[in-house]
Design a protein that fits this description.
By secondary structure, the protein is α/β, with parallel strands linked by helices. It contains 10 helices and 7 strands. It has a 5-stranded mixed β-sheet with strand order 3-7-6-4-5, with helices on one face. The chain has a two-stranded antiparallel ribbon with strand order 1-2. Strand 6 and strand 7 form a beta hairpin. The N and C termini lie far apart (74 Å).
Length: 251
């Protein structure tokens, strides 16, 4: 196989591999710390739904597994195409959520090996999406129940995101202590999750622990400097500054 350029990284194999589908990968490749999944979002794969699969993989992946987009992997017509690094496997025809979940089970090992449980993870993701829809409709109690059901499944991947979602909805219903606990649970799973630090800061700010909230927001900004441009983050900072100013005004 010719070397495929993937965002500056070349994939090499000593022999040309045959085209593989998500269902035909060996389950012997357990996830390593440096493992990455890269999804082609070039024109042909994009038309086959690769951006949707990129989102599914990002939602399902365990916190220690990186999922990124990339350019053409050289197998146009067999897409959506996905590369697994550093092993260099190219996987084709990953066009459904079920096949994306199968790929994660192949990379991480199946549930019998203490790895990725496709069924539970997909079910939890579905519950999370329903919960997010209920949040948009301001049905906060229903959303919290759906997020709790997803958490109870103990999915292999995406659990940190569900805790973040439940933290956000608990804040909206006034359960500040519960929101703080959920943000901390998310950070136990993924200590580099900026959205969980934002949720932590929101809960602390609601509890008037302004200095701890300021620290949480600062960590989120350090991990992802791009959030500085977010209107919602700017509003949080403004509210924090207002509370700090009020707290410093002598009575």
């Amino acid at each position: 196989m010719n070397a495929a350029l993937v965002s500056g990284t070349h994939l090499y194999r000593s022999t040309a591999p045959s085209s593989r589908s998500c269902k035909t990968l060996s389950r012997t490749h357990l996830v390593k710390a440096e493992t990455e999944i890269r999804v082609c979002v070039n024109r042909t794969c994009n038309r086959s739904g690769s951006r949707e699969i990129l989102q599914v993989l990002s939602d399902l992946a365990p916190a220690n597994l990186t999922v990124k987009s990339c350019g053409c992997l050289g197998r146009c017509g067999a897409g959506p195409n996905i590369a697994v690094l550093p092993d260099g496997y190219i996987v084709g025809h990953c066009g459904t959520a079920a096949r994306a979940a199968d790929l994660l089970a192949d990379v991480c090992g199946g549930p019998g090996a203490g790895g990725f449980d496709s069924f539970k993870s997909l079910k939890a993701l579905g519950l999370r999406k329903k919960g997010e829809a209920e949040m948009e409709k301001r049905n906060f109690t229903e959303a919290e129940a759906l997020f709790s059901e997803a958490i109870d499944l103990k999915p292999s991947g995406g659990l940190h995101a569900v805790y973040k979602c439940r933290s956000a909805v608990r804040l909206l219903i006034g359960n500040y202590a519960g929101a703080l606990v959920d943000s901390e649970e998310a950070l136990k799973i993924d200590p580099q999750y900026p959205e969980a630090y934002i949720c932590q800061g929101d809960a602390l700010l609601a509890m008037n622990d302004c200095h701890a909230a300021e620290k949480a927001y600062a960590i989120a900004l350090q991990i992802d400097p791009s959030i500085r441009r977010s209107k919602s983050f700017k509003a949080r900072v403004a509210m924090l500054q207002e509370k700090l100013t009020t707290a410093n005004v002598p009575s």
